[in-house]
Amino acid sequence: MSETLPEGVERREIDGRKRLATRGEAVYGEPTDGEWRAWDPDRSKLGAMIELGMDVGLSGGDRVLYLGAASGTTVSHVADFAGPTYAVEFAARPARDLLSVADSRPRLFPLLKDARKPETYAHVVEAGLDAVVQDVATRGQARVARLNRRFLADDGRLLLSVKARSEDVTRGPEAVFEEVLEELEEEYEVLERSRLDDYHDDHLGVVASPR
Amino acid sequence: MKESEGWFRDVEPGDLEGARAAITDGRADEPRDWPVAAVETGFAADTEEYYDALHGATLAATRAAVAEREAADDRRLIHMVRAMDDCRRLSNELAERLAEWGSSVDEGGTGVEYARTVVAGESGPADPAVRSLADRVVDLADEADRLEDDVERLAASVTPNLAALAGPVLAARLCSLAGGLETLAKKPSGTVQVLGAEDALFAHLRGQATSPKHGVIYTHDAVRGTRPEDRGSAARALAGKLSIAARIDHYSGDRRPELEADLAERIETIQARAGDGPEGDGHE
């Protein structure tokens, strides 16, 4: 299969091996090569999905809503190659780090908001986005994806990372994933799914499009 | 009523405070193509200008909201650890009363564990008043446990470095004694060293006692695990690292795992003095 990385994402030799990389100001001490900085799939679910060859449907310059931006590790790479990028994070502490990531990226818009309450940021985040990236460690991950469907264009993509342990620590991950996917499929068509275990234990990567 | 107005509707271009408030407090049921709407209403000349304004507005709004939320979390942590200590103290006091009462009838027992056996019907008199009191003791002890779980979670987010170094409960107690993370961060480490030993400190200042070597940080293994003659040094070293951790947590907030290694190394050096004979000065 021929891989199509988004424009602005390349596999480059950094620190002696081929790694995903984007161009931008370094933010978390990641290795760099000139203006390119390594995108570590061990620290990023979206990075792992791309590293594993999933077709995330991003082309570069995309308009993106990122839910669960945390301290901005992954969203910094997204903002490097995407267009306008809205970063929603609920916790104050990591959001402080997110601010410094956004300071040097003029098309990255940080928002201290609850991803379960899209009505508190729908007056800021635009409609018709190319992608919603979701990485929220909370119960009800399928519900969050459904609630935020309103921001996606009809041909947009949901790039979801499901954390099994956030839903239910007592059941096996596969059972949890099936339940999450079942609920997700009420509003999305699942195009691709893959366990991310090589990089993130008990996580499932999902690419879906709105029904 | 359906709301569908963009954040910029009542904001004059260049009014950052108005923009901040609109981002923070506004809402809409459905998103729209805001960049286009902003150009149509004349808020921005083109979408690039709109995005520039949005960047400034979201940074200002998020910065202010983060500061506000952190201050609120700080207050919450202090109330929580105080409530935890109160619940623990009250349940222990009542457990003593209960044991006294209960053991006038049978072999008795002590503490909250005894109260649990009474609640379970395994010991104690049949007197409903005794059983009811035991219920209260166990409820309070359970509440203290729940609060301790909450303290652990919240301390790790409010003050991650201090919690990693001191343990979450001691970190919360230090914030509580200082009156907040900010005041803790601004105190010299000598003050951090004796927080919680105010009685002893004032006795010393009145000339009635030697200066206290440590306050609440006594509960930390670095102090407790050091022989008595070196505890002053251990407490001073620990207080120094805790002060640094509190300052990082207040002013920057990023995690510095190397602090833990620094502290461990320092304490190891101090504790190694014990092996160097009675007048050993350590090997620094």
Automatic annotation (TrEMBL), chain A:
EC assignment: 2.1.1.-
Family per similarity comment: Belongs to the methyltransferase superfamily. Fibrillarin family.
NCBIfam families: PRK04266.1-2, PRK04266.1-4
Keyword tRNA processing: yes
Pfam families per the UniProt record, alphabetical: Fibrillarin (PF01269)
Signal peptide (from-to): none
The name this protein goes by in its record: Fibrillarin-like rRNA/tRNA 2'-O-methyltransferase
Keywords: Methyltransferase, RNA-binding, rRNA processing, Transferase, tRNA processing
HAMAP family named among the record's database cross-references: RNA_methyltransf_FlpA
GO biological process: methylation; rRNA processing; tRNA processing
UniProt xrefs under InterPro entries: Fibrillarin, Fibrillarin_CS, SAM-dependent_MTases_sf
Enzyme type, top EC level: transferase
Organism: Saliphagus infecundisoli
TrEMBL record, chain B:
Superkingdom of origin: Archaea
Domain Nop: 158-272
Signal peptide coordinates: none
The protein's name in its UniProt record: NOP5/NOP56 family protein
Gene3D superfamilies found in the cross-reference section: Nop domain (1.10.246.90)
Transmembrane segments: none
PROSITE patterns recorded: NOP
Coiled coil: 130-157
Keywords per UniProt: Coiled coil
PANTHER family: NUCLEOLAR PROTEIN 5 NUCLEOLAR PROTEIN NOP5 NOP58, NUCLEOLAR PROTEIN 56
